[in-house]
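Operator note (shift B, R.M.): manual run for FAD-dependent oxidoreductase requested after the automated queue skipped it. Running by hand, logging everything below so the morning shift can see what happened. Input copied straight from the record, untouched. If output looks odd, do not overwrite the archive copy; leave it for review.
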Amino acid sequence: MDNKYSVIVVGGGIVGLSIALSVQNQGTDVLLVDKNQIGSGASFGNAGHIATEQVFPVADPSVLKSIPSMLIDPLGALRIDWRYILPLTPWLLKLLGNMRHKPFMHIHHVLSMLNGASLGAWQAFSKQWQLEDLVKIQGSLLVAEKPPTLKKLRRHGEYLNSMGVHNQLLDQSQLLAQQPELANNQIGGLFYPETGHVVDLALMHERLTQAFVQLGGKVLTECEVTAIDSSSASQARLTTSQGAFIADKVVIAGGAFSKSLVKMVSRINVPLETERGYHLMLPNEKGRLSIPVSSMDRRFIMTPMNGGLRLAGTVEYAGLKRPPNMQRARHFLPLANPMLKTPLDSQNTSEWMGFRPTISDSLPVIDQKGPYVFAFGHQHLGLTQAAITADIVNNMIHGQPTPLDCSPFSIKRFL
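Run finished. Output pasted below as returned.
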């Protein structure tokens, strides 16, 4: 039957695409469905940073003192749209609960485990699909321009080293020798050697999609899923704007849009919210930096890409429906310029806003229940954790042991 597949993957971001390719590569026929285009959401517009060093929860107690400014400053690094406070409140309360010491440390250790496996998974995935020219494992920097910030960085680096997240504290001369375009106000930073970045996200998605199709995988874009149901534990039916399909397994990997998909198949109310992120792309700024540079003081990241320099970051809580505030993207330019010796060329810039899928405990859902497999909620770390998530889900689908203990990622934790 033309509408029958072994596996249907819903969501063509980097997580869903990596899963679809890994499963198809085992000889299992896969249909990949996306309501837009493959790799067109947060996977297109993210910072391109394979951020294995980011092992702390989104639920950081230091955020509490920032809440008043989050409501007032429309361009702040953390922003809550006051019109969205009411629908956001249940999720915020759960987030606050995860700031307590015990859950905070649990999440921290689980993220450390997951990110600890992510770099090796990316290296193997990159080699398998000939992505070495696009996926650069050359490290990244977190820099400081104030003495108290540098002091915090030193303590932060010492702690991370003690738990196996390798880094090196650079003084100003070492920092400027490595990245000579940085201004003298950058007084030091942490270098993370076991991190990386992607220099062309769109081309990476294109190559992975081509490999998937060449292996026999099928792709449906502009295809809205309107219903998912199952008549048994071994089969599910997908109703879409392009027809109905039957599969032995349906993988829900819809990123920030996964909550509504889960509601179709489960009574579990997943505490998933979107963190709206922005970027500003500077096409004339090629070669200014060699690796990603994040500012601890200014709270954003600059990533060198083949298409120019990408300035990205910030968190805005305003839901999935409100229009973007592109002034937030343009604000990256006055943040970045003081960090560099000469002003950035801002001609022909492009602006973007997208949705990060963040669960209140900062951990993804990677689980299976009957004919359904869940792989969503990776917050800021979707790119970072895509390859290891694909390994886990591929093993789940084929009845093999997973490379990590997946109990912390169970959907049942929300019961």
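Quick read of the result: The longest helix spans residues 101-128. The mean pLDDT is 95.
Leaving this for review. - R.M.
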